[in-house]
Structure formats: C-alpha cells, structure tokens
Amino acid sequence: MNYLRRIYLRMIYWLSLYFLLLASSPTPIAQSQTTITDGKLPKQDCWRWDRKSQALLYGCGREPVSPAGGSPNFGGSYNYILYYVPEGYRYVGRGQECWKWDRRSQALLYGCSQGAVSPAGGSPNFSGSYNYVLYYNENQGASAVSRGQDCWRWDSKSQALLYGCGREPVSPAGGSPKFGRSFNYILEYSER
Length: 192
Hints:
The relative contact order is 0.17. Helices cover about 10% and strands about 30% of the residues. By secondary structure, it is α+β, with helices and mostly antiparallel strands.
C-alpha cells in the first residue's frame, strides 16, 4: 500500500511540475523540438565533493563557496561527472532534469522549485547553467551511469544536492538538511 501511494504521489508531482512549466513557458513547447535520450546526453566533469559541508560544487571555475562557510575542502573528492541536456533539446529519459549550477557559489541546486538558497547567501544565479540530469535508484539509475556513487540527497530546505552517508551535512539554508522526500541519487565519477 505504501509503495503504491509513493508511486501515485510521484506521478502527481511530475504531472504538476510538467503543467506548471508548460504554463510558465513564454513560448509553447514545439512538438518538432529535437529530443535527446539517456545514452546520448553530453557530460561535464570537474564536480567535487566538499568535505566540510558534504555539498557538490563545481571545482574548475571561480572559487566555490562552501555551505559550511569559506572555501571548500576538496581533499579526497572524486571527479564527479554530470549529464546535461543541450540547449534546444527536450529530454526524454529516466533521469530527473532541472538541476542547475549556481553561478555565485558553484553549487548544484534543484532549479524547478521555490526556495533555492545559494551557499553564497540569498537567491542563486542560474544564468548560464546547463539543464543537468541526475539519476536515482528508484528509476534504475545505476544502469544509466558507468561508475556511480549513491547516497546523494536533495535538501528540501535549500534545494542543494548533498552527500547523505558521511558526516552530518550542512544545508545552505542553515543547520541540518531535510532529506525526507529525497531520492537516492547516483553520481558518475572517475578517479582524479
């Protein structure tokens, strides 16, 4: 019963998100728009785990900001690889899209919900961000990535992606994160 309820709630969530995005789109989504599927998505590496906060930050741009304050500590981090939807394409696949890079802090945040908090303080700046796709266990995400690490969680307080199986993560919104409704995300990685 609990399993069917979760499926029903997820279906309602995704349908509402779809209609919300469709209604807020300045131009209708064209049926002739080129689609892209899993296995065809381009990748971007250089994402790093911040040991201080457990957050995922882009490590090859300007100086990232740790949700725990100051500069991050990337010691022991893998080189994480994220998939993204190229401009002008419509994604059709098993992953969850709408993850965005915050230009101000270099953090990865969920960009299709209200209340995103930048680790640099205030609202995030998503200008110039790709539309990243994350895979999770509930949708066979392990088969979509070649070498993956699970236990990444969505913090509903800040919309940030944090590692949830290590020491206590720090939410960009302050204090402990709220992982209650999070999927178990899987990130592809390579050794540095």
